[in-house]
Specification:
One of its GO terms (molecular function) is DNA-binding transcription factor activity. The protein has 178 residues and is mainly α. The chain contains seven helices and three strands. The mean pLDDT is 94.
Length: 178
């Protein structure tokens, strides 16, 4: 969350200066980068939250609804939702509980796997996720405060970091058709 008025100096730049002054120059750039990403996350998250909160959604709830809306049938096994959202199954269960309470999703038995439960998007859930996405696109993503070329560079740098940290692997390319 951004302060009510801007600070008179950049506290991360000051922390970097202090890092260097205390003999940690070799780690100062990384400390500043990590601190900047974490602070940026707070600012970005508060912008998204301000748009979603009036709709009764959190970003976690929106992510699950959006994921379901991208599927052919509006349904996924709970375990698949957990894997795709990269969150613990307990977190998905908690989000599904709240969405189900609001009649935005429902649980169904998996048709071929007796151990699995599907989470299914309801018509009300589909309507809300479309509305929320439109508002989020208009109020946040269309004017993020970062030039388009910088967004692409930033995304590429962060993707490389995530891949090298073991967050994902590049997909195996499909062979050319015969």
């Amino acid at each position: 969350m951004a302060p009510a008025s801007p600070l008179p100096m950049d506290p991360i730049a000051e922390a970097k200066r202090q890092w260097i002054a205390h003999g940690w120059a070799d780690a100062a750039d990384a400390m500043a980068a990590f601190s900047s990403v974490m602070r940026t996350h707070q600012i970005m998250y508060s912008r998204v939250d301000a748009v979603l909160k009036p709709l009764g959604l959190s970003y976690a709830r929106l992510e699950l609804l959006r994921l379901l809306s991208f599927t052919r049938d509006g349904a996924l096994p709970m375990a698949s939702a957990s894997a795709r959202l990269q969150v613990h199954p307990t977190s998905v269960t908690s989000v599904v509980d709240r969405l189900e309470r609001d009649a935005l999703v429902r649980r169904e038995a998996h048709p071929s796997d007796g151990r699995a439960t599907l989470v299914v998007l309801t018509d009300a859930g589909r309507e809300l996720v479309e509305k929320a996405t439109a508002v989020l696109n208009a109020d946040v993503f269309a004017s993020p405060g970062i030039p388009a070329a910088d967004l692409q560079t930033m995304t590429a740098i962060l993707a490389r970091f995530r891949r090298e940290s073991g967050d994902f692997t590049d997909p195996v390319p499909y062979p050319d058709p015969l």
